[in-house]
Amino acid sequence: MERRVSITKLKAMKKRGERFAMLTAYDYPSARLVEEAGVPIILVGDTLGMVVLGYDTTIPVTMDEMLHHVKAVVRGTRKAHVVADMPFMSYQAGPQDALRNAGRMLKEGGAQSVKLEGGRRVADTVSLLVSSGIPVLGHIGLTPQSVNQLGGYKLQGKTPAAAVKLINDAVALEQAGAYAIVLETIPAQLGEVITQKVSVPTIGIGAGPHCDGQVQVFHDLLGLFDEFVPKHAKRYAQLGEVIKDAVGQYVAEVQDGAFPTEKESFFVDESALAELTQAR
Ligand code: KIV
């Protein structure tokens, strides 16, 4: 049995100065493609609420919805490390709640680790999970589950005081045992300072080029979601257009009789055909 990428390997990559790409995936076919393309760590993000389920924010996403997608991604991969995102209110109410829900992500979902949002505020929870054998990926900066508190999807850590708070949050997560930390939508200079300050890998999304890894949302990268395109996203393909063209061709060919042809049809042999004709 092939072993999946471990947190030890990810930490060693930082030590060797090797950068790595992380990408979200939400289902079996996309997870297979992402792994085959060489992504070592896949996030089943609660962004699935927006890009897959059509919610306005990540807030309505439930544990059951997450588990459903985590299981599909795990089935579609053999080598990649799969991180399950903890949805809103699956860990905020207290460490025991967090432990139970994070345990489900590993035990039922098959993930190798969990991600949760917050810095010093969640440090005790992170310690409890880690000491219970559940590896934790931290997430600070723009934390989308707090969008109502933050007043929108805005750049974080802009003032010196806010930047110091984020540095302290990163250190608190490292001390609590997080194996890596996602830095979302913060100035590139702050991304660099935090990356130098902590010994665990930083994984940036809108946090500049100095982080140890980068993470992006599958649908942003591939042009599959155009309701909102964040500034930090680069489109490497326009699959939305490719899909619309292909489906449009299918519709036209059905309408004008060009599909299906003999190639896509099934036939019985001559003797069966004769019997069929007689019976008719
Ligand atoms: O849910 C998600 O996809 C995330 C990434 C944007 C880091 O948290």
3D architecture notes:
- The chain has 280 residues and is α/β, with parallel strands linked by helices.
- The protein folds into 2 domains: 7-237, Alpha-Beta Barrel (TIM Barrel), CATH 3.20.20; 242-279, no CATH class.
- The protein has 12 helices and 8 strands.
- The chain has helices at residues 7-16, 28-36, 48-51, 63-75, 95-107, 123-131, 147-150, 160-176, 188-197, 218-221, 239-256, 270-279, and strands at residues 20-24, 41-44, 81-85, 113-115, 136-141, 180-184, 202-205, 213-216.
- Strands 1-2-3-4-5-6-7-8 form an 8-stranded parallel β-barrel, surrounded by 7 helices.
- Helix 2 (28-36) links the parallel strand 1 and strand 2.
- Helix 2 (28-36) crosses helix 4, helix 5 (95-107) crosses helix 6 (123-131) and helix 6 runs parallel beside helix 8.
- The protein is elongated, with a radius of gyration of 23 Å.
- It starts with 6 loop residues before the first helix and ends with a helix.
- The mean pLDDT is 96.
